[in-house]
Fold:
Amino acid sequence: DVKVTQSSRYLVKRTGEKVFLECVQDMDHENMFWYRQDPGLGLRLIYFSYDVKMKEKGDIPEGYSVSREKKERFSLILESASTNQTSMYLCASSLGRPEQYFGPGTRLTVT
Amino acid sequence: QKEVEQNSGPLSVPEGAIASLNCTYSDRGSQSFFWYRQYSGKSPELIMSIYSNGDKEDGRFTAQLNKASQYVSLLIRDSQPSDSATYLCAPTRGKSTFGDGTTLTVKP
Structure:
């Protein structure tokens, strides 16, 4: 079974803090993704990576950056958290085929 | 226009009925689709894929793809309360676009 894990299920941070969300997959998948999910707005792609040190912007990259130093790990960074970044963050991975396997999600609250 | 549009919910059906979930898409190049199911508070999980025009059946689930009309649907026969969830459709190509989802409630 593919396993995608995320570092925290719930996180509370203050405005202006630097926030790191970590995602690890154990199936040697090439592709990894970061989404945020908000009521009424659906699942929106922030960034994705198709190889180590490679990244591409998704639909809403503003205010976020990513890092992929190892194949199994994909980090999402909020350089200076803001209240409008309060959301559910979902990480996913996939092999060459496009079906994605999702982690359990991190519910981030920025106060 | 959104790349993928799903029929607005929520959708409520009685137990044992057929639930019909629909999705239209704008990119004529989209050839195949996934259906994901997301239970409340959980992350999406892939339940069906359809790669060619027509129907694909898997147990109580049937995915239908009509490329001429640019729609894809998911039928759930003999709906169960455990089918209550949000269903997301997504084309297999492109930059990971998902529909907003349709929330299905199956009432006992």
About this structure: The longest strand of chain A covers residues 42-51. Chain A has a mean pLDDT of 93. Residues 20 and 77 of chain A are 5 Å apart (CA to CA). The radius of gyration of chain A is 13 Å.
